[in-house]
């Protein structure tokens, strides 16, 4: 598996009247060919902004990607590409699907044409070929009667079907990377399961690498290879899916895992919940951003930012609890080990 | 890892009061709107220009000679130290006349818009709030009023009534409020479906409370924007009617009437047309630019 | 002790007329009761009529047919003071924490809305009450003068809860109160609701599409599909032994936060999507997607019947 995408020290700020909001504060990660990386975190943690930066979709102003940031796709810096290179990259090499399929589809254009458009631009097909290919794509994402449905408009599709169409559009040009920004949040549970299965199946068949962004750890358990937990614009823990679920080290990951209710939990027991709200990144704390909500917060946490500690080749955690001087803390009951 | 003071590694847990603090400044809707309006240089410049125009209309006529005073010895003079904007065919000081005319034009703009806002809000508000057949009937009436050619109404009214400010206002307002009514109706219909209105209903509030506590405060921003665009259109309509002789009659004057006189001597004394025309242009432009700025500043979607 | 019915819904129907020939049957012949002090969960996918059902129970929508009894009194027959008294007793919390708070009012005024309407407190007492409510939902005094847009989703939802609590209701319809929130914040709100129920003896109708949270908070759970109530049972029984094929499919779609389990689990996959509730065909609404469907399912509407004690299901299989 080769390295496909490498993000190095990504920093993104937004300039507002009240000052500079540091939405992403030094995020680095890489993505290998054919793997699924899940980025998990609460709203406002910078996960969407990170993914949008990869396609340079951050409006500027007010957005501002700092100079020291680098996003290397096949060793070429996306942040330094010109407009033409960017156009070829977007949709051709890397494509993206969003949370709300209705707003990302053009309501006045037939579905078939919306898929074909990409094919004509990126794969140089003529119109007839492109429409034929569009029908194939719709069949691939599991839309029945594809032959007739290419001639329909988005409003004639249900929410789940629209998301399938979005996936078809995104995969039309055989991209190397698919970025899925909360693709199932707006959908019902049964549809959610269908879409997740579809993405997994397509990845097996096409070998596309997927960056999956979500706030729900439960959703990614079956699909992700690696997980990266973000909080207040930083990565606090990363590891393989098994490491994150069975051997998590960061109190925030513990909290995320615990706050998912399980069908086995006792009725009306107090659920574990994270107190308070994430810090306002207008004035990010000097120390660990999670300190004010962390049960295991130490004095040092409020004064300094913890550095990443390697647990294994794949797992990395930024927390002072792993410092040799720190007291030994066991993860809360029900976390870690086989569930 | 570098060595760190061991004493700092003591678990202190969560300080509850800290976890929910808000660090951003506390701004009310109007403070926030003003802050955003201030960022818009063009809108602020327009606002400044408008204030200047108002002040001149209030105090301008007292600076020069009386606007009705005819001095035949100084007919049709160009701008000079004695008469800043020159004089007209009857030797009257154009500087004074311009601001007296401005008083009339601006008052028609403001009073007309005020009447329109009052009628339009009440009518549109009732129509939108009650909906159903009430709405159907009220909107049909609006459509009928809209289908009557506005010029005909104005001309008939000016002929029946004695031409003057009152008949002019009446003519302009009789159909003018329909646009405002439609806009308010649309807003109210949209807002009344929102969840906070539903929450208020669930709490048992009556129509009065919903209208005054929720609907009006939430539409006022848009009404203000609409008003800013409406004032210049009233001024323009007045100027147009006075220009074709249906509006203000001498010895009273307005910007439209001044233009009308100026146009008669345009070939020889272009300044007689230039100044009133310029006043109309600047006012219209300033109101429109300010309206644009206000629209951005008062848009709730742009609040962060 | 928990046998007294606070709410009884009998054959409730709520139709919306879309056009001359099209009738949207949002809620069609639904009956259930809610006992004092219990939580009844209502689950189903979007468009199944659960929100309409909740709003109709509160009298926010006028029922097309059927009866809604609150403490034995038909709410559609309440007038004047009685009606006002009912709004004081029955409250609602909304799904969207952004749309449900008036952006132009301070949080203090939003919370005090019910107090002002019913003239419960004035002056200093009113301020005290606002502070008390804020601390009840875990916010502090300083927040009273702030505006809703300054708060996060979870905080706004708690403001919505405080607003409903201000009139000291007995019954609250929670209309998807957690669906728009992050998973980590959902627990905060659910814990708050459970604690309030314990301390204040509240009765909830808890509407959601997230089955795991519903199981956690509810005593009994009703499953809705296209305007019909297809199954109703105590939450433990429903999750251990679901009878209706739709309930079974719904349960098997819940994501499990355990990679090994969720990788190997066999899901019951539903074919297709929920059909439109406009002019539904006769027979069981679920029949076109049901793998057990028999000819009778497409002809005769199944009725809700008690298969085991306190376990109701509406399906021709039983």
From TrEMBL, chain A:
Q: Which GO terms describe its biological process?
A: peptide transport
Q: Which UniProt keywords apply?
A: ATP-binding, Cell membrane, Membrane, Nucleotide-binding, Transport
Q: Where in the cell is it found?
A: Cell membrane
Q: What is this protein called?
A: Oligopeptide transport system ATP-binding protein
Stretches assigned to the ABC transporter domain = 5-257
The record lists the membrane-crossing segments as none
Keyword flag Cytoplasm: no
NCBIfam families, A to Z: oligo_HPY
- What topology does the record note for this protein and the membrane? Peripheral membrane protein
This entry's Gene Ontology molecular function terms read:
ATP binding; ATP hydrolysis activity
State the family it belongs to: Belongs to the ABC transporter superfamily.
Pfam families per the record? ABC_tran, oligo_HPY
| Entry-linked PROSITE patterns | ABC_TRANSPORTER_1, ABC_TRANSPORTER_2
User: Which species does the entry assign this protein to?
Assistant: Caloramator quimbayensis
Q: List the GO terms this entry assigns under cellular component, sorted alphabetically.
A: plasma membrane
TrEMBL record, chain B:
Give TM regions.
42-63, 104-126, 138-159, 165-184, 219-248, 268-291
Q: Does the keyword Cytoplasm apply?
A: no
Record's subcellular location: Cell membrane
Entry keyword set: Cell membrane, Membrane, Transmembrane, Transmembrane helix, Transport
Q: How does it sit in the membrane?
A: Multi-pass membrane protein
Listed under GO cellular component are: plasma membrane
Which stretch is the leader sequence?
A: none
Q: Name one GO biological process term.
A: transmembrane transport
Main localization category:
membrane
In this protein, which residues make up the domain named ABC transmembrane type-1?
Answer: 102-291
Q: Which Pfam families match?
A: BPD_transp_1, OppC_N
The record ties this protein, via InterPro entries, to:
BP-dependent_transpt_permease, MetI-like, MetI-like_sf, OppC_N
Q: Which SUPFAM superfamilies match?
A: MetI-like
Family to which the UniProt record says this protein belongs: Belongs to the binding-protein-dependent transport system permease family.
The protein's name in its UniProt record? Oligopeptide transport system permease protein
Organism in which the protein naturally occurs: Caloramator quimbayensis
Q: What is the lineage of its organism?
A: Bacteria, Bacillati, Bacillota, Clostridia, Eubacteriales
TrEMBL record, chain C:
Domain ABC transporter: from-to ranges: 7-251
- Identify the keywords attached in UniProt to this record, alphabetized: ATP-binding, Nucleotide-binding, Transport
- Please name the CDD domains in this protein's record: ABC_NikE_OppD_transporters
Tell me the protein family, please: Belongs to the ABC transporter superfamily.
Q: Sorted alphabetically, which InterPro entries does this protein's record hold?
A: AAA+_ATPase (IPR003593), ABC_transp_ATP-bind (IPR050319), ABC_transporter-like_ATP-bd (IPR003439), ABC_transporter-like_CS (IPR017871), Oligopep_ABC_C (IPR013563), P-loop_NTPase (IPR027417)
What biological processes does GO assign it?
A: peptide transport; transmembrane transport
Q: Which residue stretches, if any, does this entry annotate as coiled coil?
A: none
State what protein this is by name. Oligopeptide transport system ATP-binding protein
Q: Looking at the keywords, is Transmembrane present?
A: no
Phylogenetic placement of the source organism: Bacteria, Bacillati, Bacillota, Clostridia, Eubacteriales
**MF-aspect GO terms:** ATP binding; ATP hydrolysis activity
């Amino acid at each position: 598996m080769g390295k496909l995408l490498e993000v190095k020290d990504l920093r993104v700020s937004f300039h507002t009247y009240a000052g500079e909001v540091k939405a992403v504060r030094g995020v680095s990660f890489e993505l290998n060919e054919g793997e699924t990386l899940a980025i998990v975190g609460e709203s406002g943690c910078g996960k969407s902004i990170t993914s949008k930066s990869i396609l340079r979709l951050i409006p500027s102003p007010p957005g501002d990607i700092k100079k020291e940031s680098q996003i290397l796709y096949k060793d070429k810096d996306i942040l330094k590409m010109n407009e033409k290179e960017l156009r070829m990259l977007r949709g051709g090499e890397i494509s993206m699907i969003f949370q709300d399929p209705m707003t990302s589809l053009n309501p006045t254009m037939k579905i078939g044409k919306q898929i074909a458009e990409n094919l004509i631009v990126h794969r140089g097909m003529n119109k007839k070929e492109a429409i034929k290919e569009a029908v194939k794509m719709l069949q691939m994402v599991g839309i029945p009667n594809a032959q007739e449905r290419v001639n329909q408009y988005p409003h004639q599709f249900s929410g789940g079907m629209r998301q399938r169409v979005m996936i078809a559009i995104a995969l039309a040009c055989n991209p190397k990377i698919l970025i899925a920004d909360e693709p199932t949040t707006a959908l019902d549970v049964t549809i959610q399961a269908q879409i997740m299965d579809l993405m997994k199946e397509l990845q097996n068949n096409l070998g596309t690498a997927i960056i999956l962004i979500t706030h729900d750890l439960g959703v990614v358990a079956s699909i992700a290879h690696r997980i990266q937990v973000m909080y207040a614009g930083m990565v606090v823990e990363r590891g393989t899916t098994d490491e994150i679920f069975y051997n998590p080290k960061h109190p925030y990951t513990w909290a995320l895992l615990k706050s998912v209710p399980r069908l086995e939990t006792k009725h009306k027991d107090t659920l574990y919940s994270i107190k308070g709200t994430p810090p306002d990144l207008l004035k990010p704390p000097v120390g660990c951003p999670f300190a004010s909500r962390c049960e295991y917060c130490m004095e040092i946490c409020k004064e300094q930012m913890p550095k990443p500690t390697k647990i294994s080749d794949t797992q990395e955690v930024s927390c002072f609890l792993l410092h040799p001087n720190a007291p030994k803390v066991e993860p809360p009951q029900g976390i870690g080990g086989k569930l | 890892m570098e060595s760190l003071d061991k004493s700092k590694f003591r678990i202190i847990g969560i300080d509850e009061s800290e976890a929910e603090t808000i660090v951003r400044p506390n701004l009310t809707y109007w403070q926030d709107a003003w802050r955003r309006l201030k960022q818009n240089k063009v809108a602020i410049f327009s606002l400044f220009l408008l204030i200047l125009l108002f002040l001149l209309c209030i105090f301008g006529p007292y600076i020069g000679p009386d606007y009705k005073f005819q001095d035949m010895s100084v007919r049709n003079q160009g701008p000079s130290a004695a008469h800043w904007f020159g004089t007209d065919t009857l030797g009257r000081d154009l500087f004074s006349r311009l601001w007296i005319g401005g008083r009339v034009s601006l008052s028609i703009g403001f009073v007309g818009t005020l009447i329109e806002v009052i009628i339009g809000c009440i009518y549109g508000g009732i129509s939108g709030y009650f909906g159903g057949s009430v709405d159907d009937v009220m909107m049909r009436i609006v459509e009928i009023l809209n289908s009557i050619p506005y010029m005909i109404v104005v001309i008939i009214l000016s002929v029946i009534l004695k031409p003057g400010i009152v008949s002019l206002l009446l003519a302009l307002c009789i159909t003018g409020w329909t646009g405002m009514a439609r806009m308010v109706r649309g807003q109210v219909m949209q807002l009344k479906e929102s969840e906070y209105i539903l929450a208020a209903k669930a709490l048992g509030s009556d129509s009065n409370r919903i209208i005054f506590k929720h609907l009006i405060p939430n539409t006022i921003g848009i009404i203000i924007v609409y008003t800013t665009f409406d004032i210049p259109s009233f001024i323009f309509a007045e100027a147009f009617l006075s220009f074709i002789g249906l509006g203000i009659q001498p010895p009273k004057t307005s910007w439209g009437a001044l233009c009308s006189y100026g146009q008669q001597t345009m070939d020889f004394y272009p300044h007689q047309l230039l100044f009133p025309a310029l006043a109309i242009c600047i006012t219209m432009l300033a109101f429109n630019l300010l309206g644009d700025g206000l629209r951005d500043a008062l848009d709730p979607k742009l609040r962060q | 002790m928990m046998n007294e019915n606070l709410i009884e819904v009998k054959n409730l129907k709520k139709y919306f007329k879309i056009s001359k020939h099209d009738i949207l049957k949002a809620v069609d012949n639904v009956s259930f009761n809610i006992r004092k002090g219990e939580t009844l969960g209502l689950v189903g996918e979007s468009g199944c009529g659960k929100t309409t059902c909740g709003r109709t129970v509160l009298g926010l929508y006028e029922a097309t047919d059927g009866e809604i009894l609150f403490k034995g009194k038909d709410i559609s027959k309440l007038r004047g003071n009685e009606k006002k008294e009912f709004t004081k007793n029955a409250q609602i919390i909304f799904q969207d924490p952004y749309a449900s708070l008036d952006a132009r009012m301070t949080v203090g005024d939003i919370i005090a809305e019910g107090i002002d309407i019913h003239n419960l407190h004035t002056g200093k007492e009113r301020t005290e009450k606002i502070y008390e409510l804020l601390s009840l939902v875990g916010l502090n005094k300083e927040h009273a003068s702030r505006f809703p847009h300054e708060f996060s989703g979870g905080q706004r939802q708690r403001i919505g809860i405080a607003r409903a609590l201000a009139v000291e209701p007995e019954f609250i319809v929670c209309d998807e109160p957690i669906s728009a929130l992050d998973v980590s914040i959902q627990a905060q709100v659910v814990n708050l609701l459970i604690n309030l129920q314990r301390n204040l003896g509240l009765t909830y109708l808890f509407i959601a599409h997230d089955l795991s949270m519903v199981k956690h908070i509810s005593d009994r759970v009703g499953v809705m599909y296209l305007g019909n109530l297809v199954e109703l049972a105590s939450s433990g029984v429903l999750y251990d032994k679901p009878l209706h094929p739709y309930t079974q499919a719904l349960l098997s779609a819940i994501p499990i936060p355990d990679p090994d389990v969720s990788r190997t689990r066999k899901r019951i996959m539903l074919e297709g999507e929920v059909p439109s509730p406009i002019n539904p065909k006769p027979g069981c609404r679920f029949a076109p997607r049901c793998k057990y469907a028999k000819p009778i399912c497409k002809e005769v509407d199944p009725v809700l019947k008690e298969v085991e004690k306190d376990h109701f299901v509406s399906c021709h299989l039983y």
